[in-house]
Write a structure and sequence with these properties.
Blueprint (H helix, E strand, L loop, with lengths): L2 H53 L21 H9 L2 H32 L5 H10 L5 H14 L7 H4 L7 H12 L4 H8 L4 H12 L1 H16 L3 H6 L8 H11 L4 H31 L6
Helix pairs in contact: 1-13, 2-13, 3-7, 3-10, 7-10, 8-9, 10-13, 12-13
Length: about 300
């Protein structure tokens, strides 16, 4: 064995040892991070698990101490009973109607405004964009009284117009979200479309929207979540019980049956299911829309 080989072997062993130590530290770091995240997720899931457990109990076993996490005889009939105690199906239909109208209006209006800010060149564009962003700092309570007076003069109190119409006129945050996404699409596509004879609306409809599905999905999810769970606007504008949304329906159910905790938990879980399903099945597009990935390939 040569002298050079004898010198290289210890150095190779030391390098191998350093690589092994690095891999070990990296693996331990990942294990610690995952352990912390899993622990946090478990703590966050405890209230949801308690709701689900309570929804399957009888009224006499809800407040048992120590709590019974797994009921001996799950009462799935609680979920059917909530539709008999209150018109829960009507509340779901009302909420679905308002939410669908809000999502469609928000996607159309925000995408049109974002397209104008991102793809068109016109005088005062940047100034108006800054003014639009400045409205995000305006609290909702400041405009509540003027809006209520306007809707009262129009005869829209106790109708769905105050809940739906504002979503057909855009919104600063979601417009900003789509504007940033549209700016990630190459402008050369617009030029190529104009050469082929496409109009401005044709570029918006046939080029921008098909390439912006992740951003549109993010807008849809944000709007769906806000509209489905909205309590403040229905409380202000809706008075008739037959027009109640789910949030008001749950509140009225609590007022009428404030001791029926097992039924209240069942109703709350039913109200949560659509939001959870929407996010679960659309989270891929939601995450892509948030990080502004633009087009691929």
């Amino acid at each position: 064995m040569s002298l050079e080989t004898q010198v290289q072997r210890p150095s190779q062993l030391a390098a191998h040892h350093r690589r092994g130590s690095y891999r070990l530290r990296k693996t331990l770091g990942k294990i610690i991070i995952h352990a912390v995240l899993i622990t946090g997720a478990v703590f966050l899931m405890v209230p949801l698990l308690w709701m689900f457990s309570t929804s399957l109990k009888s009224l006499g076993t809800v407040m048992v101490i120590p709590p019974e996490w797994i009921p001996e005889e799950p009462l799935w009939s609680n979920y059917a009973e909530i539709f008999q105690v209150v018109p829960f199906g009507l509340y779901i239909r009302n909420t679905a109607f308002v939410t669908l109208a809000d999502v469609v209006g928000k996607i159309i209006s925000c995408s049109l405004v974002a397209f104008a800010f991102a793809r068109l060149r016109w005088r005062g564009r940047d100034t108006l964009f800054i003014i639009m962003l400045a409205t995000m700092m305006l609290p909702t309570q400041v405009t509540l009284v003027p809006q209520f007076i306007i809707y009262r003069y129009l005869g829209w109190i106790d109708t769905y117009f105050p809940l739906i119409l504002p979503n057909w006129f855009g919104g600063p945050f979601l417009t900003f979200l789509l504007r940033q996404f549209f700016m990630s699409i190459p402008l050369e596509l617009d030029d190529a479309a104009r050469i082929d004879g496409a109009t401005i609306f044709g570029i918006y409809w046939r080029i921008i929207l098909p390439l912006s599905k992740p951003g549109l999905a993010a807008v849809g999810i944000f709007t769906f979540n806000a509209s489905w769970n909205d309590f403040f606007a229905p409380l202000i504008y809706l008075h008739s019980r037959e027009r109640y949304t789910l949030s008001l329906g749950l509140r009225s159910f609590q007022d009428q049956n404030y001791t029926e905790w097992h039924l209240l938990m069942a109703a709350s879980l039913v109200a949560m299911v659509p939001v959870l399903l929407i996010f679960f099945f659309a989270q891929k597009y939601f995450i892509q829309g948030i990080v502004f990935t633009g087009i691929k390939g």
